[in-house]
Amino acid sequence: MLLSENADREPAPLEPDDDMTIEPALLQLRERFATLPPPVIVYNKSHSGSRLLARALIEQGIFMGAERNESEDALPLQAVVEAAVTAYYPAFGRLWEAPGAEPAVLAALVRDAFDRHLAGYRPQAGRGWGWKLCEALYAMPLFDFLFPRARVLHLIRDGRDVAWCNHVAPEQAFWRKVYFNTDRVRSWQGRSLSNAAYERRPHLYNALHWRNSVETGRAFGAMLRERYCEIRYEDLCADFVATMTALLHRLGLEPDAPAIAAMAAGVRLDSIGKHRGQPWPARRAVQRLIEPTLLSFGYGERPLRAPVDRAAPLKAWLQGRMRV
């Protein structure tokens, strides 16, 4: 099921304010990219199943980049995201006010990255292009400026399951921004931000990471109006054919039904609800940390309760008899 069901009409791009000062290098890039079809951008919290979505888009003829890793992340764009987030997130307004040399350096990085990403792409031969990169959501103000007609797909997975999918500690400045929206924080709830602290209780750090990722992804996405679409990982797995068919229609593409059916045969459900196999105290700690966000995304409707020990009355009676 698609969480966003906006009308599928050609969107009007947001134009810069007349009083806004924008570095010419960025404007030149925007004009250069305007000759391309609008890209499809996939972002999500890491370990939310976006590899499945990216591969499904590739099977539908969408070019997702010349250089990708096993998770289908667009490798050349990682440097762009890291540079933009480290320098400007969350206050991207400073990008338009920065001295000319600063955004010009970023523009050069963007140009080189997309030259690599688009190597071999032929617009007239395919069904569009795009990229998948989890942390791209934190650089969306930049990408929205450069590609004002881009379509954005936000893949969302139950944060309780993501809590048990280990990723990376917020030790470096970039990752502190990803977790906390600032790189100035040095501890969290009395815990350090080191790899050692992360490895002791990764589920808590992962849950915190999930919360900020989905909230930021939705906040930036909402600004794109009908160009933004939320998709549940659970729906993609449970009804792959219907979910992909609806999504492709949203993108204005005729679904390749045989390709969808072929992929659907290999989609698995065993990772959904994986948090239920974890110790109850750890699950409770995760639930308390992210419950409002879980509820706002339609997860965790039932309150988490301690497991019922049905043998407790018998145990109590036996203990009483032993004391006699």
Give an overview of the whole structure.
- By secondary structure, this protein is an alpha/beta fold.
- The protein has a 4-stranded parallel β-sheet with strand order 2-1-3-6, with helices on both faces. Strands 4-5 form a two-stranded antiparallel ribbon.
- The chain contains 15 helices and 6 strands.
- The protein has a single domain (about 25-324), classed as Rossmann fold, CATH 3.40.50.300.
- It has helices at about 25-35, 50-60, 75-90, 95, 100-115, 140-145, 160, 175-180, 195-200, 200-220, 235-240, 240-250, 255-265, 280-295, 310-324; strands at about 40-45, 130, 150-155, 185-190, 190, 230.
- Residues about 5-20 have low confidence and may be disordered.
- About 50% of the residues lie in helices and about 5% in strands.
The arrangement of helices and strands along the chain is: HEHHHHEHEHHEEHHEHHHHH
Give the amount of beta strand, in percent: 5-15%
Supply the CATH class: Alpha Beta
Number of helices: 15
Question: Nearest-angstrom radius of gyration?
Answer: 22 Å
Which regions contain 5 or more consecutive residues with pLDDT less than 50? 5-20
The biggest beta sheet reads: 4 strands, parallel
Structural class: alpha/beta
How does CATH name the architecture?
3-Layer(aba) Sandwich
Mean pLDDT: 89
Number of domain modules: 1
Separation of termini? 61 Å
Q: Mind telling me the CATH superfamily name?
A: P-loop containing nucleotide triphosphate hydrolases
- Strands across the major sheet, in which order? 2-1-3-6
At the fold tier of CATH, the topology name is Rossmann fold
The residue fraction in helices comes out at: 40-55%
Shape estimate? globular
Say how many strands there are. Answer: 6
